[in-house]
Amino acid sequence: MPATQTSKRSSAVEAFLSEGPHRLFIGGKWLASSKEQTFETLDPGAGSVLSAVYDAEKEDVDQAVQTATQAFRKSGWAQMTPNVRGVYLHRLADLVEKHKPILAEIESLDVGKPLGQATWDIENFSATLRYFTDLAVHIQYKTPIAASKHEARVVRHPYGVCGFIFPWNFPFLLVGWGISPALAAGNTVVIKPAEDTPLSTLYLTRLVKEAGIPDGVVNVVPGLGTTAGDALAKHPGLSRMSFTGSPEVGRLIAESCGRNLIPVKLELGGKGAAVVFDDVDVDTTVDALCGAVTLNTGQVCCTATRWLVHESIYDRFIDRTRSRMATVQIGYWNDPQTQMGPVVSQKQKDRVLGYLQKARQEGADAVVPGGEAEVPGKPDGFYVKPAVLAGSPDNIAAREEIFGPVPYLLKFKEEDEAIDIVNRSKYGLANSVWSQNLDRANRVVESLVAGNGWINAHNVFVHGIPYGGVNLSGLGGGVLSPETLFDYLRNQSVVRPL
Ligand code: NAD
User: Fold this and answer.
1) How far is the CA of 154 from the CAs of 78, 140, 492, in angstroms?
2) 249 C-alpha to center of ligand 1: Å?
3) How far is Cα 119 from Cα 103, in angstroms, rounded to an integer?
4) What is the pTM of this model?
5) How far is the CA of 197 from the centre of ligand 1 (A)?
């Protein structure tokens, strides 16, 4: 159901957009790229150009890594005590909160997501930054070891320059998840935002400067994956790398890091399952799962895209799903009625519609057919309707990540059968189990192979609880937990024989 009413952009955001081409941020300065070429970033809700951005080349990435290396060695950042670094990082979190309305509007415009969702993303950034900043004050940097005839301790140091490559679905939130532990631990960073959505990260550079974080500690090189991204992943000056995105590109990043022998974190795609038993409240469960799969227009790596429903409630579940999906308000980001915005690009729209076609060709039932959506006044926006498919677990839409609002329904009878279907997936990011029988829910969730298992909820992110994937969904320890902070500290054993 398309929503209609829209309002104008704020003058602060208009002013920011009109300052394009937006520049790289290296060593505390805003610079044009070496070849002065630019790329455009679009408003996916209108299909129109938002702003131009300088396109970082290999030479620019090289300059950014060298500058970050100097800052690691000379700026004093790495040597500060965590509470002193914390003053700068809390100041940055304060500034992000102060600029929340502008950042949220920029994020909504660039990604297409409704303003309320973008606002949550910005709030989550500052909460993540504060979480790791406070954690860094309370961990031990020197741990004595009881060893016979030796005086020994482990000392924890920051690594050096950490590279980060991010995707377009949660551009600002994911920068927070990525760089917060690295900075709190005393590392310096070089960030390559996604070319589809670089604007909020570029706005962040102003706040980094205003917070007084030493020049060169945070550097941003917007650019294309195959040039700037490739140059960053291969750079021999990095001490660590972190990549969030598709498994295909994740493999390339891991290869480069393997050659340079540096640790890498990969946060990759998913094909999350929701296993729904017969004792649930059908209406509430359908509503929660429809909300999960339409969040960010289905462009959520861990969302529930395979819904395994017990056969005794399957027909009621389908009826409720049909009626619930028909109420989803599709629209522009600043329409208060909008529940679901566009997908991020024409390429992503083609991908979603292409999967619907392939799934039908392979015999899937179109419970809700989906397809292109029209939003009044926005004929060139990249809008799709939610679709719901059903059928064999071997169908392409039941196996591959579509990255759109398209759940695939599967019927099961026995608990073991459901577990077997879920674990056939090559992904392993997040699954959920829905039942009032908590013994059963706990038993089943622990037998599902994934980094995250949720009970009677889906898409749960809490600071302090590790979030990461296994198999095709990632490696390297994940994010958001105390372990993540330790991942950004290298261990040194110091020993004196007695
Ligand atoms: P993508 O892999 O196409 O791009 C991600 C980033 O990699 C972009 O910045 C891109 O410019 C860069 N890149 C592309 N080619 C590159 C190369 N050859 N070398 C270096 N960098 C390169 O992914 P996407 O389409 O932006 O994002 C969608 C994917 O991200 C989905 O698979 C989704 O599940 C995944 N994702 C995972 C998580 C998680 O936490 N596990 C979170 C968000 C998104």
Assistant:
1) 18, 10, 5
2) 7
3) 8
4) 0.97
5) 12
- Look up residue 68 and give its two tokens: 């970050």
Neighbours of 374 (CB within 10 A): 11
Token digits for 364?
């899937």
At 31, list the tokens: 């610079």
pLDDT digits (tens, 9 = 90+) for 46-81: 999 999 999 999 999 999 999 999 999 999 999 999
| Of the candidates 58, 451, 471, 487, the residue with the CA atom closest to the CA atom of residue 251 | 471
Q: Which residue's alpha carbon is nearest to atom 8 within ligand 1?
A: 194
CA dihedral 17, 177, 244, 271 (to 10 degrees): -110
- Strand intervals (E) in 44-108: 48-54
Instruction: Ligand 1: list residues with CB < 6 Å.
Output: 165-169, 192, 194-195, 225-226, 229-230, 233, 244-246, 249, 252-253, 267-270, 301, 401, 403, 429, 469, 474
Bridge partners of 3, per DSSP, are: none
Probe target for ligand 1 pocket from 249, 253, 429, with the most ligand atoms within 8 Å of CB: 249
Please state, in angstroms and as integers, the Cα–Cα distance from residue 127 to each residue in 25, 94, 480, following that order. 24, 10, 11
Nearest atom (ligand 1) to Cα of 245? 30
Instruction: Look at residue 413 in the predicted model and tell me its pLDDT.
Output: 98
The rounded distance, in Å, linking the Cα atoms of 234 and 309 is: 45
**Dist. CA 323 → ligand 1 center (Å):** 34
CA distance 173 to 459: 14
CA distances from 72 to 237, 280, 364 (A): 12, 54, 54
Non-local CB neighbours of 162 within 8 Å, separated by 6+ positions? 179, 182, 187, 188, 189, 190, 238, 239, 240, 241, 242, 488
Alpha-carbon gap, residue 309 to 379, rounded angstroms? 37
Distance CA 190, CA 240 (A): 11
Task: Report the SS3 class of residue 466.
Answer: coil
Residues belonging to the active site: 267, 301
**Paired tokens of 420:** 């077997």
Please state, in angstroms and rounded to a whole number, the distance separating the CA atoms of residues 488 and 475.
15
Measure the CA–CA gap between 261 and 236, rounded to whole angstroms: 9
How many CA atoms does the CB half-sphere of 281 hold within 13 Å? 6
Yes or no: say if 82 and 184 are a contact pair by the CB < 8 Å rule. yes
Low-confidence ranges of the chain (pLDDT < 70): 1-7
Please list the residues that pair with 272 across neighbouring strands: 304
Interatomic CA distance for residues 305 and 358, integer angstroms: 16
Element (H, E) at 227: none
Q: Render 158-221 in DSSP notation, one character per residue.
A: E-SEEEEE--SSSHHHHHHHHHHHHHHTT-EEEEE--TTS-HHHHHHHHHHHHTTPPTTSEEE-
